[in-house]
UniProtKB/TrEMBL annotation:
InterPro entries: sCache_2 (IPR033480). Its main location: membrane. This is Cache domain-containing protein. Gene3D superfamilies: PAS domain (3.30.450.20). It is a multi-pass membrane protein. Residues 68-152 form the Single Cache domain. It is found in: Cell membrane. Residues 1-19 form the signal peptide. It comes from Yoonia phaeophyticola. Keywords: Cell membrane, Membrane, Signal, Transmembrane, Transmembrane helix.
């Protein structure tokens, strides 16, 4: 019985380790935001929403990296993983510590143009709250896009 538990534990740790190696980096997150900006500059708001939402393309899906697009009021306009939250206002949503992370993302994008915002969010690999940072960029005076990574990367 102990041997079975040890084997199961070893398997689980191996799976976690393999998954952790498959995480995107901060440089890759910034590059994806810059790519989103290029789509926006070439085709505008609707083109970027379509590109982010296109589940048949890997352009905006790389391991655990994907963009999210909001308007300055906090309405989520697009989500690279096709989230059911698209179309909802996220302005008053808090992380597990009560931090208004969408407000912070809007503030950084609209007041600084771009930057990193730290908060805690459920890690899709472990299912537990984890430190996360999102690189966010203002597309114009109404729209922003961001890509997040888990802080241990």
């Amino acid at each position: 019985m102990i041997r079975m538990i040890a084997l199961a534990a070893a398997f689980c740790w191996a799976q976690i380790g393999m998954a952790a190696e498959d995480r995107g980096s901060s440089d890759e997150a910034v590059a994806m935001v810059v790519d989103a900006l290029s789509v926006f500059e070439e085709g505008g708001r609707d083109a970027l929403i379509a590109a982010i939402s296109d589940q048949s393309s890997d352009r905006f899906r790389d391991r655990d990296l994907f963009p999210i697009m909001w308007n300055r009021d906090g309405v989520m306009l697009a989500h690279g993983r096709n989230s059911p939250a698209v179309g909802t206002n996220r302005y008053d949503v808090t992380d597990v510590n009560g931090f208004y992370h969408t407000r912070a993302l809007i503030d950084v994008a609209m007041n600084e143009g771009a930057g990193w915002v730290p908060y805690r969010f459920e890690d899709p690999i472990s299912g537990q709250p984890a430190d996360k940072v999102t690189y966010v960029l203002a597309l114009d005076d109404q729209l922003l896009v961001g890509v997040g990574i888990y802080a241990d990367q």
